[in-house]
Amino acid sequence: MMTTSIQFLLESIRKHVTLTIEDEQKLAAVCQARTVKRKQFFLQEGEVQRNLVFVVEGCLRSYSVDENGFEHILQFAPPGWWISDMRSMLERSPASLNIDAVDDSEILLISIPDLDRLYKDIATFDRFFRILSERSLATHQRRLIDSLSLTAKERYTSFCQQYPSLITCLPQKYVASYIGITPEFLSKMLKEPIKKG
Questions:
Q1: Given CA atoms 98, 50, 111, 33 in this order, what sign does their dihedral have?
Q2: What pLDDT sits at residue 94?
Q3: Of 1, 29, 83, 138, which sees the most CB atoms within 10 A?
Q4: Domain that includes residue 11, residue range
Q5: CB neighbours (10 Å) of residue 33?
Q6: Residue 139 located in a structural domain
């Protein structure tokens, strides 16, 4: 019998591709459940990412820290999202990102060797991750364009559209870091009255 965490993962995958019962069993056999407590690291800069992470409950974030100690958040991963330092994972090289838990979180891990076997054994699984990779690339391109061309307020609106379930529960400093402004500027911006056209 499959756990509710595995069922949630399979439901997420079924939104994009169809797996056979045998495929689902192969996937379930390699998933490892783990709990990550709030503010606990899953991955720290300099470590090698050895597992792909799927979030079942809670929220993880990936970020880098610059030489002045400022955090730059690259991604949030609420339930149903995947997260990784992709370069570290693909190259088996030291991570340039940190990944930690915003809230107490339940995650599923798939080791890189198991992931490679799934790609070979299940053509549909390979297709699923191609779809995810394409969508991720499109999202990151959009975010790069937004960061170069949009105002802070427009970037905030874009953030609200991308992460609607998180906007009310994330600390403002995390939201500010994600959109590239200071927490003080975000607070001031949110207090400004809405202009009517």
A1: negative
A2: 96
A3: 83
A4: 4-149
A5: 12
A6: yes
pLDDT tens-digit readout, 160-180: 888 888 888 888 899 999 999
pTM, two decimal places? 0.88
Beta strands 41-43; 60-65: pairing state: unpaired
| Domains held by the chain: number | 1
- The answer to whether residue 188 is domain-embedded is no
Question: In one letter, which amino acid is 29?
Answer: A
Q: Is 164 contained in some domain? A: no
SS (H, E, C) 6-54: HHHHHHHHHCCCCCCHHHHHHHHHHCEEEEECCCCEEECCCCECCEEEE
CA atoms within 13 A on the CB side of 57: 13
Instruction: State the DSSP string of 88-132.
Output: HHHHT-B-SSEEEESSSEEEEEEEHHHHHHHHHH-HHHHHHHHHH
Q: How far is CA 28 from the centre of its chain?
A: 21
83, amino acid identity: I
Residue 141 included in any domain: yes
CATH code of the domain containing 141: 2.60.120.10
